Amino acid sequence: MTAAHRPTTTLWRPTGPAELDLVRELDWRAWPPRLPEQPIFYPVLNEEYAVMIARDWNVGHDGAGFVTRFEVDTEFLRRYPVRQAGGRTILELWVPAEELDEFNAHIVGVIELVHEFRQAPAR
């Protein structure tokens, strides 16, 4: 099987405007390096969980929240156990910041923006 035909896994990432701008600067092909206070990169395994974080946390914290979707080589992802961060569907991967470059190298295709949430204008 060639690399182009390897199975992929769909992941989602809820994000705020600053991180989304950095992804855009990276031509939608990689996640930016983590900040010192961000030792872990947390992609999530389902869209509903990503929407919940983007809508309920990012909007309040950053004024806007976004959900991205991207594909990663399934074989590579096996090194990261699925973590249950709450309820049955609250599933994420914990990618150490120092492994993010390697993680980015296993993204297949581009990172897509699939949802956008913004604070309602003040009345």
Can you describe this structure in just a few lines?
This is ADP-ribosylation/crystallin J1. This protein is α+β, with helices and mostly antiparallel strands.
What does the model show?
The protein is an alpha+beta fold and 123 residues long. The chain has a single domain, classed as Alpha-Beta Barrel (ADP-ribosylation fold). It is 28% helix and 33% strand. It contains four helices and seven strands. It has helices spanning 17-25, 47-62, 74-77, 100-105; strands at residues 8-15, 40-41, 64-73, 82-84, 91-93, 95-96, 107-118. The strands form three sheets. The chain has a three-stranded antiparallel sheet. It is globular. The N and C termini lie far apart (58 Å). The relative contact order is 0.26. The model has no long low-confidence stretch (mean pLDDT 93). This is ADP-ribosylation/crystallin J1.
Secondary structure topology:
Layout (H helix, E strand, L loop, with lengths): L7 E8 L1 H9 L14 E2 L5 H16 L1 E10 H4 L4 E3 L6 E3 L1 E2 L3 H6 L1 E12 L5
Antiparallel strand pairs: 1-3, 2-6, 3-7, 4-5
Please tag this protein with its features:
ADP-ribosylation/crystallin J1, alpha+beta, 123 residues
Structural class, by secondary structure, is alpha+beta
| Percentage of β-strand residues | 25-35%
What is the total tally of β strands?
Answer: 7
The residue fraction in helices comes out at 25-40%
- Whole-angstrom Rg: 15 Å
Whole-number tally of structural domains? 1
Strand order of the largest sheet: 1-3-7
Task: Report the CATH architecture.
Answer: Alpha-Beta Barrel
Using the alpha-carbon principal axes, give the shape: globular
Oligomer: single chain
Gap from first CA to last CA = 58 Å
- Tell me the major beta sheet: 3 strands, antiparallel
Q: Low-confidence stretches at least 5 residues in length (pLDDT < 50)?
A: none
Broad CATH class: Alpha Beta
Classify the fold: give the CATH topology. Answer: ADP-ribosylation fold
